[in-house]
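During the second year of the project, the team shifted from modelling isolated chains to modelling whole assemblies. The rationale, set out in the original proposal, was that interfaces cannot be judged from single-chain predictions alone. As a representative example for this report, we include one of the complexes processed in the last quarter. Its constituent sequences, exactly as entered into the pipeline, are reproduced here:
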Amino acid sequence: MSYQGKFRVWRGDDSGGALEDFTVEVNEGEVVLDIIHRLQATQAPDLAVRWNCKAGKCGSCSAEINGRPRLLCMTRMSTFTEGETITVTPMRTFPIIRDLVTDVSFNYTKAREVPSFAPPKDLAPGEYRMQQVDVERSQEFRKCIECFLCQNTCHVVRDHEENKEAFSGPRFLMRVAELEMHPLDTADRVDQAQEEHGLGLCNITKCCSEVCPEHIHITDNALIPMKERVADRKYDPIVWLGNKLFKR
Amino acid sequence: MARAEIAARTLRTDRWWLPPLTTFVGLLLISIYAAFRTFQGDYYWVDQYHYLTPMYSPCLTEECLPAASHFGQWFPALPGFLTPPVIIIPFLLGFRITCYYYRKAYYRAAWASPPACAVAEPHSKYTGETRFPLIAQNLHRYFFYAASILLLINIYDAILAFGTGLGLGNIILLANVALLGAYTLSCHSCRHIAGGRLKHFSKHPVRYWMWTQISKLNNRHMQLAWASLIFVCLTDLYVALVASGTISDLRFIN
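Output from the structure prediction step:
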């Protein structure tokens, strides 16, 4: 079963660009990335697209399909009707390089700002002992494939470029949560989350969780627990009063 | 380097505006009903069957009907248009307003921040929950404590109503406290306090068990938030209709 599908693909670079119309053959069982590849092979050989595993595990082919942040390789053509025009655009939050390829180095900068795992000083590598129940919470966050769709969809930076400096985004707040929940991590990450990674900017509208291709409960299991830990530390009037009275 | 030049606010082709619109209309209708019933100041107690609407429980001021004041009348009669619920409503409202689910709901539906995922918000500046008044959302746990006490009082009221027999009103009051209980227990703050704040679950098996059970409920927090909110209104409506004599209670025993 093949048909001629209608596509609108954004083409351009940082000096400008526009949506261009294409008609491309679509076959049964294909995903949007297959169509982009066919477009490259038959009509637009200079079309830029970043991809790698084509199995939803490398996080390279993030883009926006009909305005929704998705992985190109995990979006089945069977989810669209044959008459539908499918729009494929690059991620909006990051600077454009060309066509569907964006510069995601914002995320690498933010990753470097999270202090690494800090085990107890008297514990050598190889001596770590943990129960499964203690680590499984943070193991959920290790499913992240770093596609940065959560970073892209988060309105804190998507709609407000000026917040990029103060806000690390859901992916790296989740990394902070992962380390904070780790039974052997000794670093104090609660104040860091609020003061240095901008946790207070998150208004838990859950778009990060909605777009995550790994279905990680970013908001419920990482961001809200971190907000509660910050509330323990900073917004607990009883603790605040104790600190004021006894200068602890 | 600049972002890709795309002028459209969103390229979404689905009906992304429907969920925020539905939420807005739902919350608006419930707010209007709750405000009307709060300031009506009547039909909150069915003397014959001891049904007390959860919106007036506990009834703590001197204008309360003595039989409906299960915990005494602590405050003098309120002036002007004020009615007994204004004492408890700030706590109930505070619990719902600072709830992590409702925050998502009204930030999207009422403040369009954002209206839906990947749909640009209309505001030029955004400071999130870093400043007053939204920084007060961090007080959610204290409203959780207050709401838990009010829930216990609602449970007491529901049990007390069984003293006169058994009617449909009893079943409704019971279902109401069951839903309110499930919503309150599924709260993110409750989940945190019960065990989420721990780093070593293995050292606290009971709290770990509690956390796992609350986590299951927490997965349904949105559904429980809506179910409990709608059912409180329906419970109140039933009590109001019986109290005003519009309908009679369907009795099974007595």
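Residues 18-118+133-253 of chain B form one domain. Helices of chain B lie at 18-40, 89-97, 100-109, 140-160, 168-185, 188-196, 205-218, 221-243.
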